[in-house]
Amino acid sequence: MEPFVVSARKYRPRTFKDVVGQQAITNTLLNAIENDHLAQALLFCGPRGVGKTTCARILAKKINQEGTEREDEDFAFNIFELDAASNNSVDDIRSLIDQVRIPPQVGKYKVYIIDEVHMLSQSAFNAFLKTLEEPPKHAIFILATTEKHKIIPTILSRCQIFDFKRITVKDAAEYLKYIAEQQGITAEDSALHIIAQKADGAMRDALSIFDRVVSFSGENLTRKAVTENLNVLDYDTYFATTDLILENNIPELLVLFNKTLSLGFDGHHFVIGLGSHFRDLMVCQHPHTLELLEVGEDVKQQYKEQSSKASKTFLLRGLELVNSCDLNYKSSKNQRLLVELTLMQLASIDYDGEKKNTDFIIPASHFKSVPPKDLKIPPREVAKTELEENTEEIAKEVPKPDPPSIKKIALKQKMDRVSGLSLSSLKTKKEHADSKNSEGSDVIQPNKPFTEEAMQIQWDAFVKKLEKKGKKILASNLQTDVPKLKNGNTIWIELPNGTMKKEVEREQGPLLDYLKQNLANHSITLHITVNEEIVKKYAFTPEEKYQKLKEKNPAIELLRKEFDLDF
User: I want to staple 26 with a disulfide (CB 3.0 to 4.6 A). Which of 16, 124, 416, 531 is the partner?
Assistant: First the structure.
């Protein structure tokens, strides 16, 4: 009996053409070899199981081939592999550097493959820098890592970096199908897609899962066997759940969730899978996004059928609820209740039963002057219609006030009794505002003349009022210049910059109101100009402040000289 060899080793690619899902990198390396344009230090980085070490071995073999060697020649004497996870000290790197100096006995290049290079210590990295920057002509270094961010920048700058991507579900499923055919195993497409999704972009993990499932189910690989062995929820569970949600069948929905829990599945796992299911239904609704659905053809048809039953509004709201449940699951003290509540909310999104309170819509006929005979309007609505038609009669009932007051009271009564949803209420509000404005315009505002001294007194009083309120910046801005009176009622003030002008303009309303009231003149206006030359009048630096103080008190200069003071 031959010993069993796992598929990850048995089907390890031997040429660049066999590498799955990394066509851009393999083509680049092939062109570099053919054009003799290969760097001496390469860094292969990416997730686990995507072909980094495999590509390094293929590259090491490819650059030493001259066409005269045997087909099974692996150039073992020219390829040196170092596991940096267990050989990460300075002594290990120094030993490697000593070997690099010796040229190869067979072939053209000696290739050093350092796997998990991010595990090297800081001192080992530093010892490796000089050799990596200027290696001998016969040496090529290939570094492989899953965590590029842990490598020091000085190493990264000396390497040509190749970023390996995750293998797509489609590519992984196709390669698994090829391996199944090689082994004479019948496999459903949906079963292979589940394995590829479980691998999460790692081909090595996909092959390991494939071997495990084949050991469980034999030569016939079905979707049911895969889901049972991998302990994942089948598509059918989520199709049934979504059907019950669309039917608003909450009791059966809770029973289905209970059965799922009884099979040993976690509620969080169920919620995450339901969110992915809603997402797949969403991408099925448009032909341009259909390619984002990574399932087999048989399951894809089921998705298309169910997506036609669900509206976009439902799916968007459903995704929002499921995502909220996912975020709150770990912090919840009653996790089962949280999931059940989410399921009940999902089943109530499109519920049109008696419990749903539909919005009240006023019929269009209500806004007509004469309601139709077959329409029953509540007494309050009839009263509103009468008011709209008989404004003059309402005005007559109001005793004796002046004509403007009659109209105002009538309009106010209409506003109090007319519904906010009727068009007539909008018209009544407009009439009320117009009448208010017209009455306000009849009042004569005083415009008494005043002197500049009186204006400056009120100006200073307003500034003191601002200081008491804590608005010291605005008060300081108003004290920058002495206001002057021009043309009888125009106040001029000159400020040193535009910023101060904007601050004063922003707060000029209360200032003008205060001056108008206290000077009994409602035609006062404020004119603000900017003169940047007056900035020089104000001291900002310590030296300028000192000069100002010295002008006021020359004795300060004697004090400074006596104590040898400095700014």
Answer: 16
